[in-house]
User: Fold these one by one.
Assistant:
Number 1:
Amino acid sequence: MDEKNSLPEPSIFERMRNRLTPEGIPSDDRGRMRMVMDSLILHIHPAKVEVSSMKWTYTWGLGGLAALLMIILGLTGIVLLNNYTPAVPQAYLDILEINSNVWFGELIRNLHHWSANLLIVVSVLHLIRVFVTGAYRPPRELNWLIGVAMLLLVLGANFTGYLLPWDQLAYWAITVGTSILSYVPLIGQWLTRLVLGGPEVGANTLLNFYSMHISFIPLIIFGLMSYHFWRVRKDGGLTVPKSSKQTEDPKPERVTTIPHLVHREFIFALAWTAALLTFAMLVPAPLEGIANPAMSPNPAKAPWYFMGLQELLLHFHPLVGAIVIPSLVIIGIFTLPFFDLNPKSVGVYFRSRRGRSLTLLAVGIALIATPSWVLLDEYVLNWTLWLPTWNTLFSNGLIPLAVILLPLLLLDSWIQNSFKADTEERVLFIASFLFTAFIILTVIGIFFRGPGMSLYFPWNMPIVTH
Amino acid sequence: MTDTPASTPLSRRDFLKAAWMFLGGIAALETAGIFIAYLQPRLAEGEFGSVIVPGKVDDFPPNSVTHIPNGRFYIVRTGDGGFLAVYHRCTHLGCTVPWDQTAQKFICPCHNSQFDRQGVVENSPAPRPLDLFALTIEDGELKVDTGTIIQRQTFETAQVVYP
Ligand code: HEM
Ligand code: HEM
Ligand code: FES
């Protein structure tokens, strides 16, 4: 390689290689760094990174893992296209075929399925990491907004993908999920018909979802993802981790991206790919019988990531449970960076020592309060019975909502008075409380709801046979 | 559009700019309209959505509930001989509601909404009674128009059709 000039006639491969790296690979750090200035890696990363930002326990590699999953989803998705027809009943037959008659078909499908589900978990954990380290404050608020948009699109991709196998699971989860739309005031019915392409989930729905799943949604996600990466650079790299005792920003100490960061990323991606492959080999993606519009299974559950929402629906009038509360939550998440501004605690996990205690407190209270409220509402409270002449929107919606919000306001003023919590700690407290409550609702929905949506212990769950 | 160049403060340049913006706005609206119209549901002929004949009056004894799967509805015959065509889709979140013969009510498997034989909510979370389809009786034959879904807030005797 070093004597490339002494060769009179370089082969075509050598010439190609020389075009790509005319100088060969230099042996010193500096030379390496210069060489890759215009390479692909440095389109994504800066040439140098902060040592402390690379600390494994700061980001947990979550953003990188999300990116890896996106790539796996893109690749497996594209090859699945070769064996899949979005028609009724061919879609279901194709999945059976993929599972039994296509080389590595089941592996590819499992990989797509599990990566998609893991992506939701990872995106949410990444969001939490960014939130608890205050990494969304100016100048990074735009990247937070893009992140939230990507999270919503990831949910959209999962939801549209869910219908594609056209089994009972898919059919009823999508029926229940899309019916939520019909509660949007004024345009709800029209909107649902538009999305479904008819009065109920059918062949047109499958085609609509398929086209969204393989074109619009991935295109927009991949576009936003590129922008997300570019913004990380543009905003001066990652936030720098600090401990709560540090008042000054730590002294910058930087190393070259290549090899220090890239090596780690490579090993990380390799290990996760191996883990995913193993998992996909061992655990098959669920598939039930072919969709049967005349028979709803008991219980009919939404996809697991919407079980928290479905649990809310059991307790509130749908307009409140499916539209009002989720809209408030999404607006709240979008606007977080605009009222939590203190730049001092950026990079400190949980803001401060007091912040850490308050978070623990919030999680603890939510752990007790949420199941209690679910049990109470299930067995004791009966708003529609107590207020029989009221419109159910009030009796079963706005009034219970107010009854729940009141203690939250009291808690907030309590931590302000007794703990002297400032704005950033209050935001942390309330967000931790609500988030924990939502996780618990999701867990209850997934594991504790049985036939007729009654509460059971998971180890006592009756099995319904039809 | 009267031509009054002296009194208008609008220069020729500004006018053209505004005109272009206006045209651009119209074009954008038209495009959006085309897309929305294009995406409107394509109605399937026959089957669900058209007029369905579930049978003759005498096929349904008084006090009976009969499922007509391809029409997505139940024919409910009341004690005094009247008819209702009740859409089998739960008004909560769209599950198909089976008729429970022993309990004598509609019980939704999804979130346990319950409806009496007229389709009126006995147990939430369903927010309103089961929807109806328009039902007519011609020459002793029932005809149900599944193209129009009738939403209602309560049960009224006017909803019942008598032969
Ligand atoms: C769904 C796909 C996503 C991908 C592929 C992705 C990727 C990344 C990557 C690779 C980083 C670099 C540092 C790290 O790993 O933490 C990062 C940082 C960041 N992400 Fe994401 N992200 C995604 C979703 C989100 C979401 C849902 C949010 C928040 C709502 C978000 C907000 C941010 C912010 C604010 C930073 C800068 C953090 C800092 O400077 O410390 N991202 N993202
Ligand atoms: C963020 C990205 C994506 C997510 C979260 C996602 C999610 C999903 C999910 C949950 C399923 C159902 C899998 C099952 O249970 O069988 C699915 C199926 C499918 N996806 Fe994706 N997907 C993504 C990207 C893509 C892309 C880019 C393509 C192709 C261009 C694609 C093509 C397909 C096909 C053909 C199926 C049907 C085959 C099957 O169900 O296994 N997906 N997707
Ligand atoms: S869909 Fe019937 S109770 Fe929810």
Number 2:
Amino acid sequence: MFSKLVSRNSRRSRKENGLFFGSLLISIIAFYIILSLPNQDVMFFLTTMESQAVDKLLSLIPALFGAALFILFFLIYYASKFQLERRRHEFGVYLMMGMRRGRLFAMLLAEDLAGSAGALLIGLPAAFLLSELISLVTARLVGLGIIGHTMSFSPQAAGLTAAGFLLIKFAAFLILSSAISRQEIGALLVERPDGTKKQLPAPVYALAMLAGIFCLAAAYRMAISGRAWENIGVMGLTLLLGMLGTFSLFYGLRFPVSLVAAHGRSDRRLHAFNVRQIQETVVRRSGTLAVCSLLMLSALCCFGAGVAIARFYGSSQPHVLDYTFPGDERASGIAGIRETLHEHGLDASFSDLFEMKIGHIQTDRDYETVFQMEPVMTALQALPSSENRDVLLNNLSYATCPYLISLESYNALLRAAGEPLLSLQEDEAAVYMDSEWTNDSKSGMLNEILQTRPRTVLDGHDCYLTGTVQTINPVTDRSITLSFALIVPDDVFERRTGDRGSVYLDGVLSGTEDTSLMSAIAEMNKKLNATGLTYESYLQNIGRHLFYMVAASYITIYLAIIFLIIANTIIGVQFLMSQQKSNSRYRTLIRLGADSRTLRGSAKRQINWYFGIPSALAAFSSLFGVRALFSGLLPSSAAENRSEMMMISAAMIFVMCVIEYLYILAVKRSSDRYLLSLMVPRREE
Amino acid sequence: MNHTDTALTEPILAIDALKKYYGKSASQTKALDGITFQVMPGEFLGIMGSSGSGKSTLLNCIASVIAPSSGSIAIGGQKLQTLKGAALAAYRGKKIGYLFQNFELLDNLTARENILLPLSLHGVREREGDKRLSQLAAYLEIHEVLDKFPAQMSGGQKQRVAAARALILSPDVILADEPTGALDSRNAKLLMEKLAGLNRDAGATILMVTHDTNAASYCRRILFIQDGVIFHELRRDYPDESGQQFYGRILKVMAQLGGGSANVL
Ligand SMILES: Nc1ncnc2c1ncn2[C@@H]1O[C@H](COP(=O)(O)OP(=O)(O)O)[C@@H](O)[C@H]1O
Ligand SMILES: [Mg+2]
């Protein structure tokens, strides 16, 4: 009998409360996704390139898991609370019939375990599929598209997921069931709305609201002025003000709502009822709503920042070269490399193989004065003051002994990249700057100056700068980052560098379009390892980039989704819970002749407000939050892209609003179903 | 002339062979087992019976809260079965007003908001109800509680507020299920006097279920039901017969009810 009751009850709760079951599934999936991070394709790949950084990231997993446990506990707690609250009456009846409290507890525990087992049974496979999907999608997103995907189920991750899930489920259960079993039977039997709590005088609420607005305004100011980043204290103060402001504002919302309730008259259907319901549900739970609003804000910030950072690090320089083989000083080195490649039949795999000559100036002068570009500096100084100009001025002041690049080899690179070639006179030079050191606006300033063909002095000879700033990296090796170099005609190059030049062999793989680039390079690496040649590949360089991108976007977006889901679930559950508690009100309305459309309309309006208030505040605050994050997190070189970044984050906020809307729809559906069940003339058994 | 005559004698509510069975054949409860009666406009009809005799079931069927197993209910000549959806909801709100034993006021609305609720449910502009609201409030002596919440009112005040809500749309029939069941005798008396006054002075048609003999003595006619059928009917010889005398006659029938022998009187 007992076990029958248990199994029937847990089956019923699965069926009746999709929201509850859904939140269980979400928790399981969220756990598994963190724990299976090391099994993601991108991570596998990155470990072969950037193992140290990856290790560092992976060592963060336990912390992330702990944080997720903590956050998801609230999700489970609220969902379970809803689940138990709606059965209060039933529990009261059991106790009335003489069921011992211990037995009730045992029954609930058994039900809880059965429910958890069911959730794990469905959730784990779903989590596995989802993490595979994420693996594929991230691979695509980071522009690999690429890696041969391998299915990778991790039993360890699954085990830890189950353990973590059961842990928080059990903790929530203990807290809730002890609260239930401490209540009087009579209190369990009557289903009643939260009742009218005692009210403070209206000015108190008005003051709270004002204080909230004031705190928020101060926090916004500190956030966008960048002062929040000055030190940890100011940052803490900003966050504290923001949180205090949110709580205080929500607390003070009682004031305007009760004003509307008392004075606003409208002939809208059920207006008074709606306002009173909103007053009760929205306002009496101001604390919860404030928490949810803050969670949504965190989600929006994480999401906006994550996507923006990913985009910034993702949009690095164009990819031209796949391989660079460093030669030695003797030119025969390059010939030797070519020969070795030929011997192993590998040269056919390259669509292009060319020499890249880069050299240091050989001179008997003091290195501080090998190169002087006074006209350029004065022209820069004459430009209107800007952050970019000052950075450029500072960087160029160190360019007193630039590297030289041979024109012929750089043109070969440009040809491979499909760019127009350079042509230089004997006394001319073009400027190369690494893309990490410049950006569109800096290059623009320089280009303007280069048009005037400024005269500089290179090792005592006149040298006129011309053309536009070149940014295509001459080698794949990131370790040779040339912040500023001069591209000069070949004989000038030979003369100036003497025996201090280095030669590299650059290669472009052929036919990488039809196979994935990653696997093509990985395969070629294997073959090259057999030849004993030293080489650098494109992937080693983007590895680091990729890593930042994956780490930043993965973690922030993950957190964003978790935050958003939790906030929305809590709001939804709270609404449905209070709706169920006021079921006698709805029954009365039906008896007074409310049709289902009127009731559903009323519930819809309440839901809109209930979700709308916290999400509107979150969206508004996020405008400041995301801006503050950008100014704090992004390197200054991304500064002039900030408007674009704001666009991205605005788009993200929009996407989040869509998610919000979907949630509202789901809760409305659930509420409709509930109200319809009230409409049906009493059950006939 | 004929026309007006028939219109006057046309019942406002006609119940015909109404049956309501609960459960399946083996353990079936015949809550209503073929009840037929009519309510004339301006009538104050009481329905009495012991607990479990089917009184609430009858009222709920009329209020369309539950569906009868067979038989028909017609209000103003319109059969209830033919009403669906919006028409049914409009029927609940406008043709009938319901007074509950436990008031069924919404506890988060003030008295005024509770009373005006039917207006906003049925798309009537609130201003139109203002005049009637103040008339009802004055008559039912609830002026001073209009801006209070139910928790701040006494039981009698709550029931009178509920009565105002039932009356605000001037329904054809007022259904009252044990309206004095949760009131002390003083408040019960006050409420019954108000209801009787409404019936006498404003011509309100009231159908009241009760097992309170005192309350029933305000009615003009009483139907006694037992085991789902009508087993007796009493008419007050108004105005010759006093409430006190009528009360005595009701008591006698009630005694018969306990004995279970029908139609002795
Ligand atoms: N929903 C129901 N399911 C089964 N039986 C019911 C239901 N409602 C009422 N009954 C039965 O119908 C009979 C009449 O009930 P009711 O009309 O409530 O009586 P009362 O005259 O006390 O108001 C009772 O025997 C009761 O047990
Ligand atoms: Mg009853």
